[in-house]
Amino acid sequence: MRTETAAIEGIVAITPPRFGDHRGYFSEVFKDAWFRENVADVMFIQDNESLSAQAGTVRGLHFQIPPFAQGKLVRCLAGRIMDVVVDIREGSPSFGKWLSQELSPETGKQLWIPAGFAHGFVTIEPNSVISYKVTAPYSPQHDRGIAWNDPMIGIRWPFDEREMVSSDKDKTLPRLADLPSHFSYSAQQPKD
Q1: Which parts of the chain register pLDDT below 50?
Q2: Is the pTM of this model over 0.85?
Q3: Considering the domain boundaries, does residue 185 fall inside one?
Q4: Which residues are known to be catalytic?
């Protein structure tokens, strides 16, 4: 598997090799021992999947707070997305900065997002299916987020904001400036 470290510490893009012939291809998309040795020594406990029917559907920016903070390994099974992460670790040199990766089945690229980051995506094509492994179960009491259109963060989405579709919940998320601190950069672990 090929890894690429991102401009923000902790984020890793992973591209599994594909072995193809006239029938198509085969790829090992996840190997626990390899992941623990080369990316992060974590245990995934749940796999999630979502379908977004319309291009321009934005989901996020989401995260969970301790003790249910989640790391995520994200890939796109159908369609195409712009996957986005925002550093929300207090004291981080990249606090409030964002980066994006295009994910699609054609490339097979995956994105590792550790706890301490807000995560979201927008669908570039209709009927996009996203699959992601998480390191903690979903907990409604620990579920948080920040506004995907926060001007302080300034994410450059591929659609005009008026064309984007989001949930009622995501439309009410706070801005980064109004977010309490939940993660610390210096300790490299979520705060208690």
Answers
A1: 187-192
A2: yes
A3: no
A4: 62, 132
Domain containing 71 — which CATH number?
Answer: 2.60.120.10
pLDDT of residue 6: 86
In the chain, the number of structural domains is 1
- R_g (Cα) of the chain, nearest Å: 16
Between CA 13 and CA 168 the distance in angstroms is: 30
SS3 170: helix
Q: Residue 144 sits in which domain range? A: 2-178
**pLDDT of res. 188:** 47
DSSP conformation class of 175? P
Burial of residue 129 (number of CB atoms within 10 Å: 0-12, 13-18, 19+)? middle
- Pairing state of beta strands 128-134 and 19-21? unpaired
Residue with tokens 């801005």: 175
Two tokens at 75?
């890939």
